[in-house]
Design goal:
17 helices
Length: 414
């Protein structure tokens, strides 16, 4: 079995990240092919190496010194090398590149590609893997498309049984000049490598644990989608989700190779698996949580229109039911889905199944407050008196509505 792995800029940002990458690779001997990006940001105020390379080239073209910018680039890689304790001569290559750059003998594409080049040199030395320059196997046609037949054959020749590291983002034109892909092109290189070697899995390691169900800038700690098809991934991209570019998917989809998006900073998380199709598990229970995970839905989307139990009835997968509290609970579900207090959720999960046995007057002050919050969320009123008959009647009505009560508990657990 063979796994091709690609590590993005955040995974290559510093020596600590290199060590995480090595741990991931050493944990699975099937991960024998590594594609890397240029060093990314170490913190929010940091610079991506690729941005600095473009800036450096622009300075020279306009006759402005780029020495300070170039020093930032070289010092980053030398710092990583030294912290990893590697005896790799990068200085001579940096000197030669600067000499050619000042003489305007380096194209913009070649300059931009050096971030991936030096990342791969360092990673190969750190792992003890073979370094394979992308210019030795990624071949472009004259129109800028990839010559897959030639490229795939070239990479296969480089596979000697030991591990290899290759830079992402670039290849070589028929005349021998360096050409880069669009931004994010290392993803394309990774997919091409997986397709060339007929990999069993293509792992794309990033700084998130897969494709998330919601924008983490809006929703706290959103869950990752466990499985998604290539067609569903395309739909996600059309709806504005930040997912892989179609060019980075086609080579592996063409050969029916699964694509697994993983998190370098949380390697135990399974991430998102992307395939052409998934076999349905007929033994899986039809629960709210399983339904949302299987269909990659957010609970907010479901409860914006209807409740899950009624949806199952309309789909003829559950028997019809009639509960007087359904309308009230359907409206309440859309409010309850926003609960993010684990303490409150745990309290409700504990007390709801035994509501008819609870002596409300014996609850602690904090427990009464939490129950009052639940009451207010569902019935849009506060409890003024826990001895009031109206309060008891509403709670008991919920207890006597098994379908709604079960869905409520499933929602809280989810």
């Amino acid at each position: 079995m063979l796994k091709v792995t690609k590590f993005g800029g955040s995974s290559m940002a510093d020596a600590g990240q290199y060590q995480k990458v090595r741990d991931i690779l050493m944990a699975d001997k099937e991960r024998r092919v590594v594609v890397v990006s240029a060093a990314g940001k170490r913190h929010s105020k940091d610079h991506k190496i690729t941005d600095l390379l473009y800036l450096c080239h622009a300075h020279v073209q306009y006759g402005v010194s780029c020495d300070s910018v170039y020093d930032m680039i070289t010092s980053r890689y030398l710092e990583i090398r030294d912290e990893l304790g590697l005896k790799l001569d990068l200085e001579s290559e940096f000197t030669e590149l600067k000499k050619r750059l000042d003489a305007k003998q380096v194209s913009q594409d070649e300059m931009a590609s050096r971030g991936e080049y030096f990342s791969a040199k360092l990673m190969a030395a750190f792992l003890g893997f073979q370094f394979v320059d992308a210019a030795e196997w990624v071949f472009f046609n004259i129109d800028g498309t990839v010559d897959k037949k030639k490229s795939y054959a070239a990479l296969k020749e480089q596979m000697t049984g030991e591990g290899i590291v290759t830079p992402g983002f670039y290849g070589v034109m028929p005349n021998g000049t360096i050409r880069t892909f669009s931004r994010g092109g290392s993803d394309i290189t990774g997919a091409l490598a997986a397709a060339a070697l007929d990999a069993d899995v293509y792992e794309n390691w990033t700084d998130v644990s897969g494709i998330l169900m919601a924008d983490p800038r809006i929703v706290d700690d959103p869950q990752a989608i466990a499985e998604v098809t290539y067609d569903e991934l395309r739909e996600l991209s059309y709806s504005g989700a930040q997912v892989l570019h179609e060019d980075a998917i086609f080579p592996v989809r063409e050969k029916n190779i699964p694509l697994n998006i993983r998190n370098t900073n949380d390697p135990q998380a399974p991430g998102t698996m992307i395939r052409e199709s998934f076999e349905e598990d007929s033994d899986q229970l039809l629960t709210l949580g399983n339904f949302l995970r299987y269909h990659h839905m957010d609970a907010r989307s479901l409860y914006a229109k209807y409740n899950f139990s009624r949806l199952c009835v309309e789909a003829c997968v559950r028997e019809a039911y009639s509960e007087p509290i359904e309308e009230t609970m359907t409206k309440a579900f859309s409010r309850l889905v926003a609960i993010d207090s684990r303490r409150w959720i745990q309290f409700l999960l504990d007390i709801l199944p035994r509501l008819d046995d609870v002596d409300f007057t014996k609850l602690s002050h904090m427990e009464q407050q939490m129950l009052n919050m639940f009451y207010t969320t569902v019935w849009q009123e506060t409890i003024e008196d826990f001895d009031a008959d109206a309060v008891w009647e509403r709670f008991y009505t919920l207890c006597d509505s098994p379908v709604m009560l079960q869905e409520l508990i499933e929602l809280l657990r989810y």
